[in-house]
Amino acid sequence: xxxxxxxxxxxxxxxxxxxxxxxxxxxxxxxxxxxxxxxxxxxxxxxxxxxxxxxxxxxxxxxxxxxxxxxxxxxxxxxxxxxxxxxxxxxxxxxxxxxxxxxxxxxxxxxxxxxxxxxxxxxxxxxxxxxxxxxxxxxxxxxxxxxxxxxxxxxxxxxxxxxxxxxxxxxxxxxxxxxxxxxxxxxxxxxxxxxxxxxxxxxxxxxxxxxxxxxxxxxxxxxxxxxxxxxxxxxxxxxxxxxxxxxxxxxxxxxxxxxxxxxxxxxxxxxxxxxxxxxxxxxxxxxxxxxxxxxxxxxxxxxxxxxxxxxxxxxxxxxxxxxxxxxxxxxxxxxxxxxxxxxxxxxxxxxxxxxxxxxx
Length: 360
Fold this sequence. Notes:
Elements (H helix, E strand, L loop, with lengths): L17 E4 H15 L3 E5 L15 H5 L4 E3 L4 H13 L3 E8 H4 L3 H8 L2 H4 L9 E6 L14 H4 L6 E3 L4 H6 L1 H6 L4 E6 L6 E4 L12 E4 L4 E5 L4 H13 L4 E5 L2 E3 L3 H11 L2 E8 L4 H13 L8 E5 L8 H7 L3 H12 L21
Parallel strand pairs: 2-3, 2-4, 4-5, 5-7, 6-7, 10-11, 10-13, 13-14
Antiparallel strand pairs: 1-8, 6-12, 9-11
Helix pairs in contact: 3-5, 10-14, 11-12
């Protein structure tokens, strides 16, 4: 008699979350894109041998070589223009600009070429370029390296403007951006590069048409993006101790804005606080406030509050820089004001201060 042996199937183990940083997630997104599509290449200042000004492209030169990881001269207009030309030739360039302030040197290329060629050619000349840049303050880099100008770019038709604030978005926003036939600008807040955490094992493609609900709530909507998302979540924690349930909406895509997700949140909570590291006058926060007034006037039980940066060049000195930027205490104060709760004596009220213009 022959013995019968039964093979016992080994239990399958679900993939586990893995530890990473925002910087590493961005790097892995570029590595995957370059492995998947030979048309994808990276170009910018110090992206090759130096590994990127913020270390995002470290190691890519060794893997893909100088043809696909190109160090560019210090001329933003020249290398952004070269990237636009490559996109017109059916390549898929990723162009890195060191900081948003320096992108102004390429504004002519971005506004007058990248954003307009599809329209001016009657749909014949798409420009599928991705332009990445660091934005934001909080790192004592002074005024010429610290401003948040993404709201300016969100003003321009023909562009898509993204602001990844989480590890998942940093890892998975790039693929749909490269697949978009329009120019895509990705704003990476400098304070997020060192943020570490677990990248969910089941994380996957990101819908770059939709905002994300990061925390549910019932009393007030905190609407923000990028580097201000951690502050909004911290403010929501503080408000919870006072019995205020704050919902946190991460815009993710600044152009086009997801009016539906924003509006649905305010329809639930009936109050809104918009947190925007840009300057208050003519800001993205002003646009969102206007849209809520136009589309959800009868849902609002209080005026829309805005927490923005002080209208000064971002200072170098740490305490002055901190004072100029939206902070957790200011968000909590604005939210308390919106829900009609107690506001600490002497608390800042940026949404109530009149703007004083100098005499002509």
